[in-house]
């Protein structure tokens, strides 16, 4: 399992690299804000839309090379983008990087589940690996680009190549075992899986909304300094990591469906408390609480999706860990319109209501078989 946790960290680092690098394309290349948003869109399109197709292919054929190749492509595409001389080439490289991310997740999720067995805690560590990689990216990329310019994205290529080779060798060692592993005889349950995907999508919308506007809420509504606004986002993300691990423990003890319901219900008061935070300092504790509550179902959704589609674990992972998570990013412009009209606090107000939808869907989920 440790190979998959580390590989997931490295892979999702390149998802986090893109938003960290976009401001430097604006500053150094003088791209417009529309052009800058197009770069983020390229990465999102590449990482989201192909995942169900790649998941289907990973289920149809073992394709043990897919995760190592995807991870390598994610790093090479993102790393070369800062060296590309023209906007279309930058856009294409970030699209390819996103496709690499999309190629990694279905195969990695399938094989990580095999390594974890019945343990949701094991899958929660796999999910946390991705969270850590995404959160590390701004901390490492921003100082490098400040010091050496946008071309410094290239210095982040070697970790992807190295980890791709390590993961490929790991896959080669387990190739014989994988070839002998039979596909589960359980029947796929598409209706529960679609309900579960709905939970994942709505949860992703909430997560992206808070991640995008929490700093602005701290600065413009609570009157905090910019530095404290950044700390608020960090504490929210730390809470998310803790919530993912807590969710895995709860699922192993109380069951996946019950854990998703617990997390969905807990998110409602946690987000309300965050919205009505009386001052920035108290709000930091509430940001941690919000991150924990919102992320309790995260890894559980991935494992339960594989339980609903036992014959298609790659497809299930591609949707729950890939497509559904990425879809949340497409709602950012909607929240932007709300913020432009009524301020960032209005975005958090709207997000306080959205968990009601998640709760309703969660209580429609049936228990997995066997």
List the helices and strands and how they pair.
Layout: H1 2-29, H2 33-48, H3 51-60, H4 66-81, H5 87-116, H6 120-148, H7 157-173, H8 175-180, H9 190-221, H10 226-254, H11 256-275, H12 280-295, H13 298-308, H14 313-327, H15 332-342, H16 344-353, H17 355-362
Describe it.
With 370 residues, the chain is mainly α. It has two domains: 2-180, MFS general substrate transporter like domains (Growth Hormone, Chain: A); 190-362, MFS general substrate transporter like domains (Growth Hormone, Chain: A, Up-down Bundle), CATH 1.20.1250. It has 17 helices and no strands. The protein has helices at 2-29, 33-48, 51-60, 66-81, 87-116, 120-148, 157-173, 175-180, 190-221, 226-254, 256-275, 280-295, 298-308, 313-327, 332-342, 344-353, 355-362. Helix 3 (51-60) crosses helix 5 (87-116) and helix 11 (256-275) packs antiparallel against helix 17. The chain starts with a helix and ends in an 8-residue tail after the last helix.
Short characterization:
The chain is an all-alpha fold and 370 residues long. It has 17 helices and no strands.
Strand content: under 5%
Indicate the mean pLDDT.
87
CATH superfamily caption of the largest domain: MFS general substrate transporter like domains
Helical residue percent band: over 70%
Give helix and strand order, one letter per element, not per position. Answer: HHHHHHHHHHHHHHHHH
**CATH architecture annotation name of the largest domain:** Up-down Bundle
Structural class: mainly alpha
Spans with pLDDT under 50 lasting ≥5 residues? none
GO molecular function, one term: transmembrane transporter activity
Organism: Nocardia panacis
Keywords: Membrane, Transmembrane, Transmembrane helix
Subcellular location: Cell membrane
């Amino acid at each position: 399992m440790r190979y998959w946790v580390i590989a997931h960290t490295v892979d999702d680092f390149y998802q986090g690299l893109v938003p960290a690098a976009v401001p430097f394309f604006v500053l150094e290349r003088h791209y417009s804000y529309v052009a800058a948003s197009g770069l983020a869109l390229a990465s999102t399109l590449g990482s989201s839309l192909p995942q169900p197709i790649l998941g289907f292919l990973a289920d149809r054929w073992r394709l043990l090379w897919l995760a190592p190749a995807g991870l390598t492509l994610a790093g090479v595409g993102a790393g070369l983008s800062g060296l590309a001389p023209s906007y279309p080439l930058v856009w294409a490289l970030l699209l390819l990087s996103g496709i690499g991310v999309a190629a990694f997740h279905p195969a990695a999720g399938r094989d990580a589940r095999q390594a974890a067995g019945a343990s949701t805690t094991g899958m929660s560590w796999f999910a946390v690996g991705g969270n850590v990689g995404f959160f590390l990216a701004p901390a490492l990329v921003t100082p490098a680009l400040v010091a050496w310019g946008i071309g410094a994205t290239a210095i982040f290529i070697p970790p992807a190549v190295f980890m791709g080779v390590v993961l490929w060798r790991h896959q080669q060692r387990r190739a014989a075992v994988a070839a002998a592993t039979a596909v589960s005889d359980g029947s796929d349950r598409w209706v529960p899986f679609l309900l579960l995907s709905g939970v994942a999508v709505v949860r992703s919308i909430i997560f992206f909304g808070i991640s995008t506007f929490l700093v602005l809420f701290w600065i413009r509504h609570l009157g905090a300094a910019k530095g404290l606004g950044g700390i608020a986002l960090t504490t929210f993300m730390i809470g998310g990591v803790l919530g993912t691990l807590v969710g895995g423990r709860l699922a192993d003890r109380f069951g996946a469906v019950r854990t998703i319901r617990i997390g969905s219900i807990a998110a409602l008061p946690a987000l309300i408390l965050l919205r009505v935070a009386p001052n920035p300092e108290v709000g930091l504790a509430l940001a941690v609480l919000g991150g924990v509550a919102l992320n309790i179902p995260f890894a559980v959704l991935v494992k339960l999706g594989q339980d609903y589609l036992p014959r298609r674990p790659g497809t299930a992972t591609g949707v729950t860990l890939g497509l559904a998570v990425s879809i949340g990013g497409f709602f950012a412009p909607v929240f932007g319109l709300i913020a432009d009209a009524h301020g960032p606090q209005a975005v958090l107000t709207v997000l306080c209501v959205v968990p009601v939808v998640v709760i309703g869907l969660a209580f429609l989920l049936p228990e997995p078989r066997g």
